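Hello,

Our lab assistant flagged a job as stuck in the queue for most of the afternoon. It eventually completed. Since we weren't sure the result was trustworthy after the delay, we are filing this so someone can double-check. Below is the sequence as submitted and the structure that was eventually returned. Let us know if re-running is recommended.
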Amino acid sequence: MKNLKFAVNREVFSNYDYEDFCALMKDAGMKIYNGVTSKEANDKIREVFNAVLGLDEKSTRKEIRRAIRRNKNEIFEIIEDTIDALIIGGWGENPFFNEFVEYKSADFGDSNSWYTPDNTILIVSDVSGGHHDIIRQKLGAGESFSIKTQWYACKIYTEFELFLAGRVDWAGFIQKVYEAFDNKISALVYAAFSSAGSKIPNSSQFVKSGTLVKNTLVTLLEDVGAANPGKEVIMMGTKSALSQLDALEDVAWISSSMKEERHTMGRQGIWQGTRLVEIPQVFAPNDTTTKLVANNKLWVLPVDSANKFVKVYDEGEAMIKEISDGTTNMDMTMEYEYQRKMGVAAIFVKYFGIYTIGE
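-- returned structure --
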């Protein structure tokens, strides 16, 4: 058993195993409840945090804020560890992430070093800064490179206060943080996708636009396959983009399995023998009208399991940044931000295809 002493000088885990408590927080954050109800899990988590902070169910909002301020180091260490595990685990369970993203973390002992194979010239779309400006760099064969990293953050103070007050559950609080980082990484990856076409050699052959024409698309698939012998070629796009392929098929002879695919997925899973991969659509931060992935683009890419084309480097050691001096914010409020230092790059082989529909 691991007993921890907090600033309030209470051995709050003397009657509770710390590792079990961490496992409970992680599972509850993912809405997994093993033998307990959601309410029981949240009540236990809130009970332990209240013990750490010296609070109870009758504590006022002022008392909660003061308790957080007095004991912030201890409680945020627990939150950091829980969210770290959830972020890595959540990305690992994402099918797109599993198949196309190579993830490295300093916590795992990985170095920020990536290598381009000798037999390939690769194009790096390196996403830099808190925006979607793209720095493009062409690498020669057999070169190593590193990914630029920076801090990404989301505010957590208000949500944690609401959790202690019993107004939101633990899963709701944790999911807000996870979703913020998941959306940020997704936005950076898709921004890199969108910029890649400008560096393709023989652009007239591998970059197409205009009305979606079956023969033109089949030729593009064929050319990408010929330029990358031995590699599976896939076609990627949003649900909206991939669904436009349906109009190119003759419904008179469509198979029962294709009909079932359309019924269950809203689109085909295979087109002309090529596997279709859906890119989940994401909105810009705090904006439910601006979509970050183009709904009129199809990407034709060779797949190499040994060299996944999206690279993510996580420097680990997430931290809580505090703004509570009473002067930084105009309204003199406190803020706590959960921060991680990360970098993303999209690595594309020399020859791949992009079809922009309607331009």
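-- support follow-up --
The delay was a queue issue, not a problem with the job. The result is valid. Confidence is low (pLDDT under 50) at residues 1-10, 130-134, 325-333. The longest strand covers residues 335-349.
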